[in-house]
Amino acid sequence: MLLRATLLVSFGLIASAAPAGAQLLTVDHPGQYTQEDIARGSLLYNAQCFACHGRDGDQISGVDLRRGQFRRAQSDEDLAQTITRGTPGGMPPFKLDPAELTGIVAFIRAGFDTSASVKVGSAARGKSLFDGKGECATCHRVAGRGPRKAPDLSDIGLARAPAMLERSVRDPSSALQPINRPVRIVTADGTTIRGRRLNEDTHTVQIIDDRERLLSIPKKGLRSFDVITESAMPAYAGKLSDDEIADIVAFLLTLRRQ
Ligand code: HEC
Ligand code: HEC
Question: pTM here?
């Protein structure tokens, strides 16, 4: 297999440039992996996980390893625990050494992409871009400030790996998490409701509408219920330079409310 992975992470830059109050990244920050980690994880995945989770990691319902969708796990630590301890729901425990475990988590967090190339720049510059030129703060809430029409990013640095964050900024539609999807609902009386899906069960769908109201809507009798697969977020691939995107990724990684 030809592996072209380059994960360019400049720890020094981030640590020295992180905004005051933000938790500083350290070298053992989960979510920062080497090319070797990802490659090791890829081999291990094919040998031990493939049979149940499938080539694209989506063979178990409610779990999509490649796209970062899990039933419970949030942090890298949760993933490692699931893998070493197993779950009552049928995930067997695995005995892995620390390097193997780091590798498999890295492979999952890199979106199964052994050629993932992620550049992490300056968090301080990233914060300015987030609040200024990038206009991210006009949609996203961080640490209790900002609107609710887009996901709250206060702990996004814990929840997502650099590769996934970069993909979210460059090309949001390709990184869309199923649970965040925009929906358009037409009720029995013809009212159209637009919003973002927060949760869904057999009978109701919970959304936050475009006026920031939390609504629980019974599905029975709806005229239509469309889940939109196109992101409501603009793609920044052509709007910001690669260096600017790297700075924003660095800033997002500092958002780690516990
Ligand atoms: C025998 C089948 C099987 C094998 C082999 C297997 N898994 Fe799983 N895995 C499952 C099942 C079933 C679930 C859902 C369990 C649950 O929700 O309790 C799951 C869930 C998971 C989850 C999601 C946890 C969550 O919070 O949703 C992760 C991550 C995971 N597996 C990783 C792996 C990795 C990595 C390997 C290889 C080292 C692996 N699995 C091998 C069956 C398997
Ligand atoms: C017009 C509103 C809007 C703007 C501007 C915007 N976003 Fe988003 N963003 C969204 C929405 C809505 C989502 C939820 C998923 C979707 O619809 O794509 C999202 C999703 C995300 C996610 C993924 C969240 C997750 O749970 O994985 C990240 C990361 C993100 N945005 C970062 C940014 C950054 C950084 C900027 C500025 C460069 C930005 N966004 C600008 C609306 C916006």
Answer: 0.55
CATH of 182-227, one of 3.40.250.10, 2.30.30.100, 3.10.129.10, 1.10.101.10: 2.30.30.100
What is the location of CATH 1.10.760.10 in the chain? 6-117, 122-174+234-253
Alpha helices in the chain (DSSP H): 11-17, 35-48, 50-53, 76-85, 98-109, 123-131, 156-159, 162-170, 242-253
What pLDDT sits at residue 223?
A: 93
Mutate which of 139, 154, 181, 227 for ligand 2 pocket (most atoms within 8 A of beta carbon): 139
Report the CATH number of the 122-174+234-253 domain: 1.10.760.10
Eight-class DSSP state of 226: E
* Residue 29 confidence (pLDDT): 41
Query: Does the CB atom of residue 82 touch ligand 1 within 6 A?
Result: yes
What is the third-level CATH fold of 6-117?
Cytochrome Bc1 Complex; Chain D, domain 2 (1.10.760)
What pLDDT sits at residue 115?
Answer: 65
Within the chain, all domains assigned CATH 2.30.30.100 are found at: 182-227
- 109-152 pLDDT, tens digit each: 888 877 665 677 888 999 999 999 999 999 999 999 999 878 89
Query: Distance between CA 3 and CA 41 in Å, rounded?
Result: 12
- 196 SS3 class: strand
The closest residue, in CA terms, to atom 30 on ligand 1 is 83
Tens digit of pLDDT for each residue in 25-44?
A: 222 344 467 778 888 899 89
Quick check: helix, strand or coil at residue 202? coil
Least distant ligand from the CA of 45: 1
Which of 140, 156, 171 has the most ligand 2 atoms within 8 A of CB, as the residue to mutate?
A: 140
Chain segment 193-205, per-residue pLDDT in tens: 988 888 888 899 8
